[in-house]
Structures are given as C-alpha cells and as structure tokens.
Amino acid sequence: MKDIFLKVISENLTNDVKKINIPTYIIWGSKDAILDVSLTKKYKSLIKNSIVRIVWGAGHHPHKDKPEEFLFILKECLNAK
C-alpha cells in the first residue's frame, strides 16, 4: 500500500493541470505535509484564471481541519462572477 501511495503523490500532473481552462480556486492547507504549499505557486502559473487561497493552520484536508474557514472560501468561490 505504501508503494502505491508514494506513486500517487509523486505523479507529475503538469500536463493535466495545463489543460484546465475554466476559472479555478486552488484551496490548500498551509500545513499540508503531503503536498507542500509551495506547489500552489506552480499550479497558479499553469492554470489561467486561477486564484490561490490558503487555509491557515490546515493540513492536507483543509475541509476537515478547518471547516469554517474552508466554507468561507468555498462560499467566496461560489459567489465569484
């Protein structure tokens, strides 16, 4: 199982991410120990019309770690024009 997990998290998604062509919110936990928060910069540069929002103090599951902050960002996203 560990080998599968390591393969999944090391997969290069650059080509797939470049294909996203709709407005996109990139929501990330500041304390994500699986995928470093520095990746948000890379994804922001690859996805046109994207916005990065950080859930401060959250880990890899910001919707579970900080649900109120996550929902605030989600509502912001849904209300964006």
In words, what does this structure look like?
It is a single chain. Strand 1, helix 3 and strand 2 form a beta-alpha-beta unit. This protein has helices spanning about 1-10, 15-20, 40-45, 60-65, 65-80; strands at about 25-30, 50-55. The chain is about 45% helix and about 15% strand. It contains five helices and two strands, in the order H-H-E-H-E-H-H. By secondary structure, the chain is α+β, with helices and mostly antiparallel strands. The protein is flat and about 40 Å long. The longest helix has 13 residues, at about 65-80. The chain starts with a helix and ends with a helix. The model has no long low-confidence stretch (mean pLDDT about 90). It has a two-stranded parallel ribbon.
List the helices and strands and how they pair.
Layout: H1 2-9, H2 14-18, E1 24-29, H3 39-46, E2 50-55, H4 62-65, H5 67-79
Parallel strand pairs: 1-2
Task: Characterize this entry briefly.
With about 80 residues, this protein is an alpha+beta fold.
Spatial strand arrangement across the major sheet: 1-2
End-to-end distance: 42 Å
Taking pLDDT < 50 over at least 5 consecutive residues as the criterion, the unreliable ranges are none
**In what range is the share of β-strand residues?**
5-15%
Radius of gyration equals: 14 Å
Number of strands: 2
Q: What structural class should be given to the helix and strand makeup?
A: alpha+beta
Main sheet specs: 2 strands, parallel
Give a quick set of tags describing it.
single chain; 81 residues; alpha+beta
